[in-house]
Design goal:
Elements: E1 3-7, E2 10-15, E3 18-31, E4 34-45, H1 46-50, E5 56-60, E6 69-73, E7 76-79, E8 87-93, E9 96-103, E10 109-112
Antiparallel strand pairs: 1-8, 2-3, 3-4, 4-5, 5-6, 7-10, 8-9, 9-10
């Protein structure tokens, strides 16, 4: 298994306690059993994280519409080297790229998907 890092064209914004970024998956990527392909919006809420609630929300498309929510979970913070753009890290498992973590532009904190090794 190899860990790969993907920097995909994205638009990111940091609104203090809430961060969001859109990214494009040109090849299928699995996230908690859901196959992502196309444009997705990632939102992270630090306040929800501090309360122990689901703090990561992933939506199909560029808008946080309830009917387009494909995954939500309580992430695991991890220190990483600062990145200059929204970054998604995947690992190939049984021939499928699995999303393991993501990191917002300018941050040294990555957000690990629960259950990711």
């Amino acid at each position: 298994m190899t860990l790969s890092s993907s920097v995909v064209g994205s638009k990111a914004a940091n609104a203090g306690k809430r961060q969001k970024a859109t990214t494009q998956f040109n090849q299928p990527v699995s996230l908690q059993g859901v196959i992502l392909k196309g444009e997705y919006l990632f939102i992270h809420d630090d306040v929800a994280m501090a309360r122990g609630e689901a703090c990561t929300f992933v939506y199909k498309g560029a808008s946080p519409l309830k009917e387009n929510l494909v995954a939500s979970f309580h992430c695991i913070p991890a220190e990483r080297t600062k990145v200059n753009s929204f970054t998604v890290r995947t690992q190939q498992v049984a021939g499928v790229e699995e999303l393991r973590e993501f990191q917002f532009s300018g941050d040294t904190e990555a957000h690990v998907v629960p259950g990711a090794k």
